Amino acid sequence: MDKYTKIYLKPGKEDSLRRFHPWIFSGAIKQSGEQPHDGETVEVYTANDEYIATGHYQIGSIAVRVLSFSQRTIDDAFWRERLSIALDVRRRIGVAGNPRNNTYRLVHGEGDNLPGLIIDIYDKTAVMQAHSPGMHFAKDAIATALVEVMDGAVQNVYYKSETTLPYKADIGHENGFIVGGSTDNVAMENGLSFHVDWLKGQKTGFFVDQRENRALLEKYSNGRTVLNMFCYTGGFSFYALRGGARLVHSVDSSSKAVELTEANVELNFPGDTRHKAFAEDAFKFLDNMGKDYDLIILDPPAFAKHRDALRNALQGYKRLNAKALAKIKPGGLLFTFSCSQVVTKENFRNAVFSASAISGRNVRILHQLTQPADHPVNIYHPEGEYLKGLVLYVE
Ligand code: SAH
After folding, report:
1. Distance in Å, CA 66 to ligand 1 centroid
2. Which terms in the GO cellular component ontology are assigned (predicted)?
3. Tens digits of per-residue pLDDT, 147-180?
4. Distance CA 332, CA 54 (A)
5. 226 CA → ligand 1 middle, Å
6. Dmax of the chain from CA atoms?
7. The whole model's pTM is what?
8. Does ligand 1 come within 6 angstroms of the Cβ of 238?
């Protein structure tokens, strides 16, 4: 077994680890002689010199992200084992090995016992993101294990961590292919095709986490006039078109996003005149529009990235939802989301409650939505639950 640097906890600081929480905060660690390097694999011991976990060390508030609660070497076999388990889960839930769907999240960080690592699959290309220096240094080993585990299904691995690694980590890195280099970028979700811009797009290029919520929207789209606000690549729009919507308007402040949406609609429904896209600010669009829509989607970017932004974020959700609730047609449906991790389900529901009260309309909650099964939440790490949505019926 490799000799890893040992770090020791302060007395009594092992409780959360005994409950398998995968993070160790810097305040729990006894400062001793040997200071590990950023990203190094370390073994963690209690104050009584009892082994408790192995993980990636990081300079910052989360000092260790736990990879294993039993003593083992973090080697190629480790990565293969964890990735095989993750793939097995995706096969069992039917998102992998499905002829109508080749887009899914293979690794969802803590949810797959691989804290700091995200891997999304788009047909034959995997997009990999490291959120910790430890995962960054392991990227080549992980990519090799990934190609092996996927057994021919993945031929390209694109590494995209420029914006996700902590800026303090002084590690030179660039986005780029670790394996392969295909420019073929069309993938499929539930039988619908779309271009993935993993080079410049947000996140890994597509919002894989809305797959099931889009499918639900499709069921409600028949005959409706749909407004897809914050459309990005247009996911909700092409599901609405397939569901039989009378018209679909997609809005995003980014003209690049509007182009992507138009290209994706064209890919699935060439020449379909039911769709129009607008590069405009959401709040302005909602202020200026008429009472034309009976299905509105609000899927904004995270309004709060940190806890100190929570109050303003909740105000933002309230204002945004109030604007949509004021204008949606009677009998309309509002699909409204928050992807801010620091905003709890209760926080979000309260914001939408306040927005409803401002509108004065009768509002029923029809569905409470969350992230799909390929974005699992580790039961010992409830912080992994981030996507919240409500489907409202507005009288
Ligand atoms: N619903 C999308 C994901 C939305 S991501 C999907 O299913 O894929 C959030 C989007 O909001 C981004 O594309 C961003 O460009 C856009 N955006 C951010 N601020 C905005 C604003 N004030 N008005 C309109 N769009 C905005």
Report:
1. 33
2. cytoplasm
3. 999 999 999 999 998 778 876 556 666 789 999 9
4. 52
5. 16
6. 70
7. 0.95
8. no
